[in-house]
User: What shape does this take?
Amino acid sequence: MNNSDLAQILIRAVEEADSSDRLLDAVQELAAAEIEEAVPTLIAALGYNNPGAAVAAVDGLIAIGEAAVQPLLQLIDDYNYGARAWAIRALAGIGDLRALDTLLEAAKTDFSLSVRRAAARGLGTLRWHQVPPEKLESIQTQVLEALLLISQDPEWVVRYAAVTSLETLAIAIAVTLPDQASRIKDQLQQMLDTDVDLGVRTRVKFAQEITQQPQHQRMFAPKRKVENPELPYRGSSRR
Assistant: This one.
């Protein structure tokens, strides 16, 4: 059986599910297959009144990756907020630069703290290799400005997410924007000193430890030239 035949069987199971439990099982199986043909059906599942199925669909869309980005962006509007919120979670998990504007807007302005949190985390998983070299510094600066603002969000879970993204951004800009990295250092220290939530302060401390490791310390020296211009980009795992 080829992928196309398997996709049709699994899609039919989703469409014919006659209970919440069967729908959840069917969406989970479809998501686990990681077949590109499943994207429209997985996106449709984001709008069902079944949170478990929506979570499974998000996981499946993230696993499929780039092929799901444009369909997800087309879904986002102001008329189906539930599906839009799940779509933003999927886009955040994929990290494709085509979703940058959507993630920035959601992280800064969405009324749902869970959506702001997901979008803030997504800003820390962007795939910088997709950006043309001539645009890299300007886009990273745009993300930095957004994260500095988001790190002041009234909800602790959003601030926590902003810290994880500031950590990964600090590592990403070690070579491209070394003079801007001190702004991240200053923001993290301010949050450590003043944030009212212990969880946020603990996460800040961890971020400081990661970004101050020897291989990253030079990013915190303003006006200092990069000693090794051929240092490879270093990514960071999601937290």
